[in-house]
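Issue 218. Parser rejects a valid record. Input:
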Amino acid sequence: MAPAGGIERSEDRPPGRQARGFVLWRNAHAVAGLVLSLMAARGERPEVIQRVMRHAKVSFTIDRYVKVYRDDVRDAVQRNDRRTAAR
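Output the parser choked on:
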């Protein structure tokens, strides 16, 4: 339980119990990563994804949140192979 000041310190928690704020923060960022990865996979421009997250730099948004899915890499290689073979 949080002390009278309302801030729960690690030493106030029983061993093995996580702070509730950390769990919520982690889940919110996991959801953001999923949504932003899907936006990128659907072809949304990196600048748009950055604006959605309200970050100062595109590189931070992409490096931190956007994951590349294995299927997307495979599909990109196959598209490139088809374009090369058609020439």
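Fixed in the parser; the record now loads. Helices lie at 20-41, 46-53, 58-65, 70-85.
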